[in-house]
Amino acid sequence: MKKIFIASLFLCTCGFAFGQGNVVAERTKARNFMQSGDLDNAVLVLTKAQETYKDDPELLKDLSLAYYYKGDYNKALETIKTVIASPDCDAIAYQIAGSIYKAQENFKEAEKIYKEALKDFPKSGPLYNDYGELLDIMKNPKGAIDMWQKGMQAAPSYGGNYYNAAVYYYKQQDDKIWAIIYGEIYANMESLNPRANSIKKMVLDAYKQKLFISSDLAAVAAKEKNEFAKAVLNTFAKQSGISAQGITPESLAMIRTRFILDWFASYGDKFPFRLFEFHQQLMKDGLFESYNQWMFGPVNNQAAFEKWVNEHKEEYDRFTNYHTSRIFKMPNGQVYSVK
């Protein structure tokens, strides 16, 4: 988790420093030390750089991170508080402060800092995500999912909130669809993240253990209060017969193909949804079977997936070229789990 945290913050912060002369070189040198685990040299470089570039907020954030990874939370907090108190404070500074408080298990102060941060940066997806993770640690799962859903609403193209929402819903006894939907969105948003494979496996398990384990999906749909969820369940109910063959990448490709055809015949206008529109486009381009293999094949059976790819190399290469040349983004207004 720390490696993911540090990498994401470096990506977010590096853009602020350009145009500041050699400060960029000093930060790069320190980040290289940090990523290699040489935290003492990272602190040394950043401390020396601070003598030349007084109160540079990017240097201070990096220095706070270096102290954080050393486990020197007091110095890390002292350093980041300087940034938070300055006019140059940004959402990332609050993220760092929140992580330090969490590491200290000072959850009261962590919650206070997140509340303060969201007043200043109400559109920050990472802040909602981190606050939700704090509430989850504090054994407040309802508060956590509320934050993650607010994060999806405020910043629909930030992936972390979808990941945590998917995991939350997967743990719920009665949930049938939200783990599947939010998990697949995350897998497309952050396909190169190491967590993508685990979330694909979770989505596959959710199809097997939650959705199609029900003997009468139409009856389940009839009891559903959320209109979007009801529509999804009713549409999947039409394909329950195929699930009797077992849930595999091949059977899911058939089920999901028929689902998309039925969805756009009945609900597409009422419930615009980017994920389903993406599926529809893949079908039109003849890439949907390859997409389903990409989504479920490796986590279902690696050997069978490799065999399928070898037998459909041209088709899968076309899909890979298409998928790697685009960025999957969710638009505003499609967090239907809160409607």
From TrEMBL:
User: Domain of life here?
Assistant: Bacteria
Q: Which UniProt keywords apply?
A: Repeat, Signal, TPR repeat
Q: Which residues form the signal peptide?
A: 1-19
Which PROSITE patterns is this protein grouped with?
TPR
SUPFAM superfamilies hit by this protein: TPR-like
* Keyword check for Kinase: no
Limits of the Ancillary SecYEG translocon subunit/Cell division coordinator CpoB TPR domain: 27-124
Q: Gene3D superfamilies from the xrefs?
A: Tetratricopeptide repeat domain
Q: Where are the TPR repeats?
A: 91-124
- Extract the SMART domains matched here: TPR
- What's the protein here called? Ancillary SecYEG translocon subunit/Cell division coordinator CpoB TPR domain-containing protein
Organism from which the protein derives: Mycovorax composti
